[in-house]
């Protein structure tokens, strides 16, 4: 990993780590934002990029018109897929085609990013010299280099920026609880591309499986347990007699004791859920789930407690029921 010592913005990070990116002499490089969930069709993007002779290709997706304005909106030529206009979170409707936060760039673009960053740094330096006399005029020059707003947006309409439109799933991960929804999206894709990755009910000696469930081969699940829908069970997990798990992620090394009920939760590494414990999250109107309960690494829930709508930090032992709290 390459660690930023300060928040530089996406473009600033590329500028700072230019030599690392250029090592090995690649012709192209991908930039992927970490807070998105999608199928990442990188090979298809590459083929589209080469066919279009693009300098930069952006992954795009059609969304409902009322939610489009919360993202970067792209207007593309329907024949060539060139991006002719880019509006970042517009106040009114511009397009239902949004930027998905995945980019493919020619290596030449890295030099342009460096030069733009140098120009902005020079502006900041000049502003610092003047700020003692006119501080109110020079306070708004950005300290970061933003890839989208500072670099890509001005490229729209210059026949260098193109979009590859995906019809597959995509969502932005805005809260920790959205990890459960993202897990469900990936398991739905497994059902389509490789159903063998999903668990299934295999008789009296296997747990009951409902819907999409992934169970690591090293996990131990009692035959009387019921898993699903939307459950991911990690390596070395132990699930006891009569346990019910649904809409949850159980990370490696966790133990769930007999007759516990785990709903809408993320159980951290090496957590221990005691007998008859119920971690879950309350629902809101319409049956939707507000968020999830999260147990950090090595959290211990003593028997017969309820943990609802809570975030529990690592290595804490819960001896009584908790609701709507962050537990340190």
Automatic annotation (TrEMBL):
SUPFAM superfamilies: Nucleotide-diphospho-sugar transferases. Transmembrane segments: none annotated. It holds the Pfam family NTP_transferase. Residues 209-324 form the Mannose-1-phosphate guanyltransferase C-terminal domain. Residues 1-115 form the Nucleotidyl transferase domain. Belongs to the transferase hexapeptide repeat family. This is Nucleotidyl transferase domain-containing protein. It comes from Aphanomyces astaci (Crayfish plague agent). The lineage of its organism: Eukaryota, Sar, Stramenopiles, Oomycota, Saprolegniomycetes.
